[in-house]
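Memo to structure team: turn this sequence into structure tokens by end of day. - J.P.
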Amino acid sequence: MRWIDDGFRQAPVHYILQTLMAFSVIVVLIVTLDILTRGTIVAALGASAFIVFAMPKHDTARPRSLIGGHAMCMAIGLCCSLPLRLGWVEVGLAQGLLAAVAVSLSLFAMVVFNTEHPPAAGNALAFAITPVAWGHIGFTIGAVLFLALVHRLLRHWLRDLA
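Reply from structure team:
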């Protein structure tokens, strides 16, 4: 059993630079908007950054999956939050059921439409149970587009690290 990945031994510069790029992207995203109050949104974007920088050749890192997955999951999460927003149900068990519905429908939609991006399911959950404003929606869309642009621009240079 080896404690250090063979790929790191062969190309440590890629590991270090791709990690620094992921750090830079997350810093830009967090500083752009005070999203620390929406930890679940940050978590989904952090996981997306991991996929883009650690597994850039994987299908889940494709712009179609990255953008489509997040867009679909945000829309589903927002739709599932309507009963809470309109006061039709109380917070509690109903909220948990709506969250489960949002994640399950997101899973179904992503696999049916070939836009699988697992971190996006976190946004389905976040948008279903957290009161979000238009700014959060716009920010999340912008952040995902930014990640997709970085991935596209660096696609020939980035290597799979995982």
